[in-house]
Amino acid sequence: MSIFSATANTNPNKSIEVKEPPADSVSSLCFSPKANLLVATSWDNQVRCWEVTGSGTNVGTVPKASISHEQPVLCSTWKDDGTTVFSGGSDKQVKMWQLSGSQPVTVAVHDAPVKELAWIPEMNLLVTGSWDKTLRYWDLRQQNPTHIQQLPERCYALTVKHPLMVAGTADRNLIVFNLQNPQTEFKRIISPLKYQTRCLAAFPDQQGFLVGSIEGRVGVHHLDDSQLSKNFTFKCHREGNEIYAVNSLNFHPIHGTFATAGSDGSFNFWDKDSKQRLKAMSRCSQPIPCSAFNNDGSIYAYAVCYDWSKGAENHNPTAKTYIYLHFPQESEVKGKPRIGTSGRK
For labeling, which of 19, 101, 165, 295 is most exposed (least CB within 10 Å)? Predict the structure, then answer.
């Protein structure tokens, strides 16, 4: 039986609702690194941008602009200039869009849908991951990729924190790259989680990464062999015997804590160093497929809409899509010493 219904509360955390949301489910969210500009991609083939205005209790959202793809859009990222957006999806291409109003241009192509992309400012390159089992690096001044990296399977997740890059593929492969030598795999490991990889997030210090799976579990993985004793996994996004996917992992840009969001409709804040959950938020009436912090961590954006995790039979065509803005309290996102210790790590 589905836990979700059209009449249930989509906003139990009293978050700010983004105006004029997409007509279909949201596939990705990302904030400009320079300003409170939020981009969402969605299954209605659209890429939309809003400006978040005001502060405190007087916060609003203003729809700024949008562009279209020919098919559903699956991923997005910003260039470090804060004014250029990249979006990729089922039409097997990546569009580059200047918010100043110029027409979008195609800057990358694959042989299958583009599931992930990231801008690497330290290299001035775009990297794209596809279900065609490749990663491709793109110099925007050239029409062809500067390098095509074969993957063992379809790309499902990607995270970059230069010089660390990790790609997650089907069959639970996690391929680690040192971007100082981007054409060679640094390490290939099998996920510590027993089920399909859904999301990844590189540690802020580039010493490891988080991996989330469809089976309500997150793995905390360090790259240095001397740190392997610090690796652990933990359960989350579960309710009794019901187990939900972890759809999104986001590190807080200031405090180094992180958020998880899941198909159960909840988001939580965690501290990996003290192995504590800092805050459990109330459960929304639909899944949360994606989320993002803004550049200073003062805003956490999340979408509430069906993610098809329970198939077509649980799709409610009358249920609306929402995007919400949560303003974290410091106590929710600032790490604290583990209870029962002296406070030293």
Answer: 101
